[in-house]
Design goal:
With 148 residues, the protein is of the alpha/beta class. The protein has 4 helices and 7 strands, in the order E-E-H-E-H-E-E-E-E-H-H.
């Protein structure tokens, strides 16, 4: 799922960007290149639609192979000025984010959720056993660690 986000220049101006995630492939179908093809096709479509960049919170170990780079290389940071290790940028128009400018990444309002409402919604489904996967811990570490 992609959502519209934006990059606001520290000196003014704004660029249209996209965010996606989470991306997952059913375990029975993993390691067949499906995820890679989904990412590649969706990035090509985003570029064709004229977006400047795709900015995600993701595992660098996976997304760097798709051309994503550390947010700090493009001067992209969160509204509080941080550069989380998991904040990754894929420039869709080469050189557009360069020039020493800084950019504040602003997520789509689609990510603003009310935790109480989400809990109530989840309670409407049959209970499932809550599990914690190693990938969730890795993502927690990446998203709470920063690049200096």
């Amino acid at each position: 799922m992609y959502t519209k986000s934006r990059l606001t220049g520290d000196g003014g101006g704004e660029l249209p960007a996209l965010t996606f995630g989470p991306l997952s492939v059913r375990p029975a179908f993993q390691h067949r290149g499906i995820g890679r093809r989904l990412v590649e096709e969706s990035l090509a479509r985003a570029a064709g639609m004229g977006y400047a960049a795709v900015v995600i919170f993701g595992n660098p170990g996976y997304y760097v192979a798709h051309g994503f780079k550390c947010c700090k290389k493009f001067g992209v940071h969160t509204p509080d000025g941080r550069n989380p290790c998991a904040l990754l940028v894929k420039e869709l128009k080469a050189g557009l984010l360069g020039g020493g400018r800084g950019w504040t990444f602003r997520e789509s309002p689609a990510y603003d959720i009310d935790p109480a409402a989400a809990e109530k919604f989840d309670a409407s489904f049959p209970p499932l056993k809550k599990e914690r996967r190693p990938s969730q811990e890795a993502f927690f570490i990446f998203s709470h660690s920063v690049v200096q």
